[in-house]
Amino acid sequence: MSTAIEAVDLFRIFSSPEGTSVALQGLTLDVDEGELLVVFGPSGSGKSTLLRILAALDRPSAGTVRVFGEDVRTLRGRALAGFRSRTLGYADQHYARALAPELTARRLVALRLVLLGTLRADAERVADRLLERVGLLDRRDARPSELSGGQQQRVAICAALAHDPRLFIADEPTGELDAANATEIYELVRELSREAGTTTIVVSHDPQSARVADRVVQIRDGRVSGESRGGGEVEAVVNRGGWIRLPEEVVVDAVRARLERTPGGILVRVSERAAQAEPVSQPERAAPDPVVAETVGLTKVHGRGAHATEVFVDLSLGFAASRLTAVTGPSGSGKSTLLHLLAGLDLPTAGDVIVDGMPLSQLDATGRAELRRDRIGLVTQGTDLVPFLTAQESVELALAFRGVGREEATDRAMGSLAAVGLAELATQRVARLSMGERQRVALARALAARPALLLADEPTARLDEANARAVGLLFAELAQRTGTAVVCATHDPALIEHAAVEVALGTLTV
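The structure corresponding to this sequence follows.
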């Protein structure tokens, strides 16, 4: 079997006036032609940086990388454009951004073929065949806004594979999907890539993605740290110079280890453990907590006529202070829509939303914006951060808009960044952060505002399990300590387990 990808001693260093950050530290990786490789690793470990280098969207600071025998570091001009348009199929973690809102699903899938010179009729036949494979032929004339998250992701994958690329890269393809839709997407990726003989690399935090993989590699600290095949045990990878990274589940709370020679190699034995913190007792509640936000007879319908979609009807819910509420349900059930209505970013078809005693129906657009500024914190799936600002500046800017003084804003910013584990990256520009780290900056920005109502849309979608659990615990503690009503739209079990209340929205077309 020939080798499709050869990456040797890859380094990627990002420099800025505030200092440097290292995304890759001597990463070495080979991928066989036709192999389906799944890459795991915590946020900030270098996964997305590796994918961007393989896709010739970025170049390494040092090391070599060849794709099908071609040194992608040297590609320029037409050769670079040809590689990206013909050899590569790329599905970004923000799949919605790849879908032009004015085009139908059929045209989105056919677009790459048309741009490569295929006759429109032939390109649309290919699009129809792919859409039929993923159960969306009857939705081929629908635009992205008329499709659920799971349907949009299927369209994005079909569009990335329509031209039969030799290399298909998918960066967190199911980060914002529920478990059922995620399983379908992984199976879809395996089936379509197998049929075309495509070499496929999938970056994921979801353990179930390993089921479709020929091989799984784990990346930590910018290096390949572990590898497994066929669902077997993970083997640690020894990097140049003898570097080896021990899995967290093995070392747990170890801070020092002793190395002992044995006939079979080296035994690592824990010699010192970190002190265990005392468990935090939960306060007894003398009376029910007040309701911060509620929906009254809420009805929402998207679209009109044949394309109208009824999201929910006569929905009445209350969200109490000092509570973390998890809003769950399959893709398309209305989780994001509910959060947008609670934030006053969208208006209901019928019914009303009441926040802090104020019916939103009595406020105009300016009044709703002022309410968001003063009483609501919002974390969206896209994070909407300014790339050239540092993490600290991003939080301070949001506080400045709320009238917080500079000194207090700095204190709050550093405190909230520390709470989400980003104190050491406070002076790094957003553009230099991984997507998981950017998501945590957005969380810190919302936390620093100390809102009465905190709304978070899939806040752990791009985080590894350890960080997801930490965010869930942070939200639960924040609610109890400050009295904030925290409402998260999520399908992540690591977050749901920390919720005091779970609201499961009904199943709609996915």
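The chain has two domains: 3-240, 291-504.
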